[in-house]
Amino acid sequence: MATTNDIGDRGEEIAVAHLEEAGYDILECNYRHGRNEVDVVCRDLEADREFVFVEVKTRSGTGFGAPETSITVDKREALRGVARGYLHEHAREGAPARFDVVTVLLAGGSPEVKHYENAFWGG
Predict the structure, then answer these.
(1) How many domains in the chain?
(2) How open is the CA angle 90-21-118, to the nearest 5 degrees?
(3) pLDDT by residue for the chain (123 residues), tens digit each?
(4) Phi and psi dihedrals of 17, rounded to 5?
(5) 3 state DSSP class of 45
(6) Collapsing DSSP states into helix, strand and coil, what is residue 101?
(7) The CATH number of the domain where 82 resides is what?
(8) Which of 53, 42, 32 minimizes the C-alpha distance to 99?
(9) Beta strand extents in 1-123 (DSSP E only)
(10) Which of 14, 28, 82, 89 is 20 to 30 A (C-alpha) from 35?
(11) For the CA atoms of the chain, what is the radius of gyration?
């Protein structure tokens, strides 16, 4: 039986493949700043190379709700901090950036992938 980590890792692989197919330039996976992490940092080549910080949520079913419902206010704030840290570390403060969410549902058959651009504000 797959563990939660196995499911999450598989979902991240699927999400990265989806982003690459959609024309995103993947810069880093699992970027950590302090105690927090963002799943994928990439550039949107069709949006003036905007930095995109992507949270990937994967579920093997919908018994606990849709994957995107698990992104709490606290998680959003943590992602904002990671994004600020990344942009500072790379001397890119003020660069255009956004937060996307990619959900992956692994409920039999082919994975169901949804990509929510500008899923929440950077604040």
Answers:
(1) 1
(2) 55
(3) 567 778 888 999 999 999 999 999 999 999 999 999 999 999 998 877 899 999 999 988 777 777 788 888 999 999 999 999 999 999 999 899 999 999 999 887 899 999 999 998 765
(4) -60, -40
(5) coil
(6) strand
(7) 3.40.1350.10
(8) 53
(9) 24-33, 36-44, 50-59, 97-105, 112-120
(10) 14
(11) 14
Instruction: Take residue 35 and report the two structure tokens written for it.
Output: 């105690």
- Token pair 């704030």 is at which residue? 77
DSSP classification of residue 23 = T
Which region holds residue 113: left if phi is over 0, alpha if psi is between -120 and 50, else beta? beta
Q: Give the pairing of strands 50-59 and 97-105.
A: parallel
- For the entire predicted model, the pTM comes to 0.91
* Lookup: tokens for 115: 């990509």
Expressed as residue numbers, the domain containing 57 is 4-120
